[in-house]
Design a protein that fits this description.
The protein contains no helices and 18 strands. The chain has 291 residues and is mostly beta strands. The strands form four sheets. Strands 1-8-7-4-5 form a five-stranded antiparallel beta sheet, with no helix packed on it. The relative contact order is 0.18.
């Protein structure tokens, strides 16, 4: 089961938490509001759905700011984050109408709702792993007395976990070195993982294999083991797989890919098989989900 979305809220100026409050005699009915039945007077959209990897498993989040006071209200809406420029707008909202904020993809966001010249009324914090296959929304009802009510709407279905699909590895060259260490580098692509590395063995190898490709749901990680193909004896395209005493380390450079369905893992670890059957950790990389 993939992680579920979590909406973290901090109420600014009205104390911690979300105040449900009581409906005043002049307030509009908050419980019957359905944003799908009408259109917002303005939408502050952040990011693009086109750039979201695995969009079906990373649905947008929406915040609907509704005026439940008897008179028009002006709201200041802003979105900021570590990897985005600030987005902001000032909008006048008539009674029973609303404005919307749409967060189109996973990232770190701080969403502020306020009035001109007044402290923030409400602040929302989002992390990248709050986004999943459920399209979530928060309805923020703002009365005249600032006794804000926040109500979450949307499904809470179980989302599919990242699933390795096809994988491949190819040798890109061999060499002999005097010194160094076996290593690998990992790149997260839009639909898979790319790995490049220098594999150390007792001889140069013209073929390698991905001996193991295992995804673990907890802690959302992929483990890849690189090994010589076949019985491990190795051969070299130039006919001599061994290295001279002056440069005794046999190095095989490679490129590998692991395609994924549904989503990418948070952590990738690459192991190189070493003589005797043990494994050397060549790389451990955590996915940057802030952009």
């Amino acid at each position: 089961m993939r992680r579920r979305a979590l909406l973290s809220t901090v109420a600014g100026g009205i104390g911690a938490g979300v105040l449900a409050g009581c409906l005043g005699s002049q307030d509009r009915d908050r419980s019957s509001f359905d944003p799908a039945a009408d259109s917002p007077v303005e939408t502050l959209s952040v990011g693009s759905r086109e750039s979201v990897a695995f969009p079906a498993n990373n649905q947008p989040h929406r915040i609907h700011v509704r005026n439940v006071a008897p008179d028009p209200q002006t709201f200041e809406l802003s979105v900021d984050g570590l990897s985005i420029d600030e987005h902001a707008t000032t909008v006048s909202v008539q009674p029973d109408e609303y404005a919307s904020i749409v967060l189109n993809g996973p990232s770190e966001y701080m969403v502020r709702i306020g009035r001109p010249g007044t402290p923030e009324l409400q602040t929302f914090f989002f992390e990248p792993d709050h986004f999943d296959c459920n399209e979530q929304a928060a309805i923020v009802s703002v009365p005249a007395d600032d006794a804000i009510e926040v109500r979450g709407v949307g499904p809470a279905t179980v989302c599919p976990s990242p699933t390795p699909a096809d994988h491949s590895i190819a040798v890109t060259g061999t060499s002999c070195r005097r010194e160094g260490a076996s290593s690998a580098r990992v790149a997260f692509g839009p639909d898979g993982i790319g790995i490049t590395g220098d594999f150390f063995w007792k001889a140069r190898c013209d073929t390698l294999s991905l001996d193991s490709v295992v995804y673990r749901e907890e802690p959302d990680s992929l483990d890849v083991v690189v090994a010589p193909a076949g019985d491990g004896s190795c051969s070299s395209p130039d006919g001599d797989a061994t290295c001279p005493d002056s440069d005794p380390i046999a190095v095989t450079a490679y490129e590998a890919t692991v395609a994924f369905e549904h989503d990418l893992p948070s952590v990738v670890r690459v192991f190189h098989l070493v003589a005797g059957g043990s494994q050397h950790l060549a790389a451990e990389v955590t996915r940057d989900m802030s952009n």
